[in-house]
Structures are given as C-alpha cells and as structure tokens.
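Lecture 7 notes: from sequence to structure.
We start with the chain below.
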Amino acid sequence: MLILKRRIRIPEDIKKAQKKIVHISDTPESIYGFLEKLFREIQPNIVIHTGDLVDNIKLERKPWLREEYRGKLVVLKQVLSRTERLYLIPGNEDDKEIIREVFQNSAIIVEPGTILEIWGKRIGVGHEPEDVTNINADFLLYGHDPKKTFGLNGILSINVITYPDWRVFRIPYPPGTNFDRGYRMLRGL
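Predicted structure tokens for the same chain:
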C-alpha cells in the first residue's frame, strides 16, 4: 500500500482560533498517520468521530476480523487520544464492546442521534445521515453516506469548527482514502 506524503495546508485562521473541534468519519487505517500529523498541526480541543473507526475492516460483513479490528483500534487510540475530549459515535462497521475495551476512559461513546452541548452550541451527531436529519441543532455531524451533503458530512472532508467565531473549514482527506474505504472508483467512458 503506497501512502503519499503531502504537506498539510492549514489555514492561519484555524491555527489562531482559541479552540477547535475536529470532525472525522469512516477512517481507514491508511490515513491514521495523516490524522496524527494533522492533529499535531491543528491541536484540536475536541475530536468527534462519527463512526466506522477502522473503515477498511468491514465487521458488519466480516465479523471474523474482530481481532485485527481491535489491533487497529489500539493504533487509532494513540492518534485520537491527544485531545482534551474525544467523542466516538459507533458506526455500522464498528463493535461497541471492542471500542469500550480499547478506549476505556479516554473517550466518550455516544449513541447516534445525540445532541452534544459544546461551548454554548448544540451539535447533533450520528453515523448515518438519518441519525441527525430531524434534530434541531446548530451543527449536524455524520458520515456513512458520501452522497449526502446537508450539515457536515465527515466522509467528504475533515471538518474543523473554530471557536469563538464558529467558522467551518473543510480539509480534504489524502488521495486514495475513498479507495481504502472500499468505494469503487468511477471509470470514464
């Protein structure tokens, strides 16, 4: 597996922000190094992962990969735990019990459809778009479906929300992320 090294361009407004929330979703293990580098640059206060933590291991269809999944979660924990607060919303490809065992007290595991109160704002979180469709909140965070574009879809980009101005910045995932997620590539005619 070839992982391209590239410079991460972080807007100065993110770096200057008093506090930062980073929203990610559907992360294959191939981007864990990229996320670690990104988090060092951004220094988020809060990370919200909206599910499918090891998206290249599809537990829903391949439950016999549970031990491999557990091992990859240990690596991901090292990346995600360098923040003040970490929220995890389990996705359809996740195992809640293994997540609890691996992350223990270093993460808050949240059910899809929950509203988080963060710095005076209401943030609706879910894995699938349907988890947040009918939620009344300032921000709606989800993943799972690359075709949905309302709110903040963590598959389409890494979303950084800055405080106190509440601006949203979208940072692209590295090239090849969708391939590693198992998405079929569109072919030209």
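Points to note: The first strand starts at residue 19 and ends at 24. The chain has five helices and ten strands.
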